[in-house]
Amino acid sequence: MNPKYKKYFKNSIITLVAVIAVFFIYQYFTQKKDAKISIQIVKLSKQNITTSVTATGTVEPVDQVEVGTQVSGIINHIYVDYNSQVKKGQLLAELDKTNLQESVNNALAQYEAALNELNYYQQNYNRQNNMFRSGVISKADYEQAAYQVKNSQQTVSQRKTTLAQARANLSYANIYAPIDGIILSREVEEGQTVAASMTTPTLFSIAKDITKMQVEANVDEADIGEVKVGQRVSFTVDAYPQEEFNGKVRQVRLAATTESNVVTYTVIIDADNSEQKLKPGLTATVTIFTQELKNINTVPAAAISFSPDKEVLQNYYLQNQLTGKVPETKTGKNKEKYIWIINKDKSLSQKQITVGINDGINVQVNNGLTGDEQIVTALDEQQEAVAKSGSESSPFMPKRPNSNNKKSGSSQGPPLGN
Question: Which of 43, 95, 148, 355 would be 73's cystine partner, CB 3.0–4.6 Å?
Fold first, then answer.
């Protein structure tokens, strides 16, 4: 290529790049100038604020008794079934008594034999005592007779204890209800053998009163510090997904439960079950209301978290022809927070307030506001949707088919403003 043309081509490329750069710089500043600042404001208002803790738990009877047996044997008869209403002292089941009765008979026979032996040795002692006093027998013979009486008395005592235990075991063959209630579960069948060893086998589970239930909720260690006795509770169960049940915290247990490195604490919640919809074992999704404040001064949580973009704030001051210094953002600590307010001259400033509880939607304001302040919750920069009518179009921008610079065929929407 001819050096002259090469130089010309190079200069043309540089010129074209410069023109494009100037165009885009012009477009950027034009858009910034045309951008509208949208500001959202609220005022101090009276609201209700509630904070809560969620957990899962299990519905259980308040009073539940496991009925077992203290003796081994075969179940001869069962007189109740699931859901049976029972009274205290009612016979629930009966074990086979053949072996137990035989044990009683043997113990009784041994006891009576021991009594006869004691009677014999007592009579012998009385004779020996008289003979010893008369000097007929030696002291050794006298002491031997006394020893036999004493030893026989111990045998009688042992046989008496054995007889009492055998009779008690016989009585244990009858299984009685220890409380009034309803049979929740039956763990045995007639003809089944039960073995009483180190642990008493469970035959029945009886709930005292299923019109009053409790929820055993597992609360995470991060939330347990907020849970107190007496707090209101609502919960749902899968059996009635559209219905909400109410309760109250009765107990916060001190013992922790660790499972898969997750530490939880058991919270006992009393719940009314007069309609008997709640069944033992149902899984409950629990909400514990840790704080409930009504008709208190609040601002939206967005007002506390709002922090304007510095450039947007500068543009806001420019558009509203504010001559004051653009304020710097201050940050508060703990309960001391800063919020942005709009002044009468449209300038913005920050005000320190003291806050209370925060439910994620509203924040309690303890002091710092009079109620007349216009509180800023958002400051957004919005671009115009279309170019203004009559504005020049760039020769570098693509044109729609059948369009020209004089008639764009587009209409301008309402401007976005503050």
Answer: 95
Mean pLDDT of residues grouped by 10 in the chain (418 residues)?
Answer: 60 70 56 72 95 97 94 95 96 96 96 96 92 89 92 96 96 96 94 83 93 97 97 97 97 96 97 95 97 95 92 89 87 91 93 94 94 93 50 40 38 35
Check residue 277 and give its pLDDT. 96
Cα 365 vs. chain centroid, distance in angstroms? 29
| Full domain range(s) for residue 216 | 53-62+208-293
- CB neighbour class for 286 (10 Å; exposed up to 12, middle 13-18, buried from 19): buried
* CA nearest neighbour of 89 among 174, 173, 167: 174
Closest CA to 96 of 126, 123, 69, 114: 69
CATH of the domain at 226: 2.40.30.170
DSSP, residue by residue, 229-284? TT-EEEEEETTSTT--EEEEEEEEEEEEEEETTEEEEEEEEEEE-TT----TT-EE
User: What sign results for the dihedral spanned by CA atoms 327, 329, 332, 336?
Assistant: positive
Q: What would you measure as the largest C-alpha separation in the chain, in angstroms?
A: 166
219 and 187, same structural domain? no
